[in-house]
Amino acid sequence: MATLDDLKKRIASVKSTQKITKAMKMVAAAKLRRAQENAEKGRPYSEKMNNIILNLSSGISDKENAPKLLSGTGEDKVHLCIVLTSDRGLCGGFNTNIIKKAKAYFQKISDEGKTLKIITVGSKGYDQLKRAYKNDIVERISFKDSKTINYLDAEKVGKMIIENFEKKEFDVCTIFYNKFKNVITQIPQEQQIIPLKTSEAEENSSEDNYEFEPDEDEILSNLLPKNISTQIFKAMLENSASEQGSRMSAMDNATRNAGEMVDKLTIEYNRSRQAAITKELIEIISGAESL
Amino acid sequence: MSEEFKIEIVNPEKSFLTKEDVTEVVVPAFEGEMGILKDHISIISFLKPGIIKIFSKSGEDNYYVEDGIVEFKNNNLSVLTSSIFNIKDIDKNKISELLTQAEENSKNSEITDQNKYLVDQKIEVLKTIN
Asked: Is the pTM of this model over 0.90?
């Protein structure tokens, strides 16, 4: 059995861990509010962008010559996956959930005999994927240095994707990220960005008769690369809100667990102290009796 | 009858500006400056570097943009842009910084004709506001 001294030390160490997790929870809560605000502020841009593209793509008469970013290369051989994760750990199942989703997709791709290419954004994703998919990872990006999520970072990734696409390095591009629903729930998402899916285009395109200047094709070819960056930026914003939310609930749980542990240890400590006292008493009494 | 319409400028980070009482907007569209009044036909176009002029009852506002898309529909003008500055607030140093950057770009020999045209536009506009 652990001695009194050992128990005392353990209680002290659990208590100090609890202090850390509590502080991390507070920080995550403060950051979460900001991240959530940013995610909400960023929404109008990507929504408007999406609407315009839907309107445009439904207006294109000549589907054959539509920009490749919209219609695809006509092949389906090489898949590029962008896995967006966080740069820091201690955020519960946040990164694991994305990786799980991505791995399921990777499995499907390789089962179908297609080539897989992976770009990881955020160092945690790379850490988790490097063991199994080391040879498939073509690029790893991390924005550890930039304090806030900014559009320039997203644009860098977007430009890289487009450059690779123009070099015909891949046919289909999918991004993986966590969508922020609320503090407790984040949903891992799988979104195909090249070729763009325009399934919703049919519904709201009927009445809009736009005038285009210059013509549709030119606007589209100017707009689609921007849309890639925008989608990535949106994913990054959602991801950062999710990360903070996930960290907050993970740290909340950790704080609670530490509290329970302290209670348990304290009871054990008190019991063994009492046992020691009783033992001593018995020894004294039986010593006196034998005289 | 009122001659006013609504303008909304958004950039990726946030909604930059919303105004309900705008009477006229001049945007630097790709094929030349374009003035938009109320009941303009629905239009989509994209921007080249230039100045957006917004006329409203409270006066005239000028914004410098580098790129973007405009959409006008049902008397709602939306401008999507990733780089926009209010000319009143913009810092002189920032302008010269952008200017030197643009001048470097234009000297780059690998630049495509279209990009060259855009960069030259940018230099011209920056020089006028500087």
From this structure: no
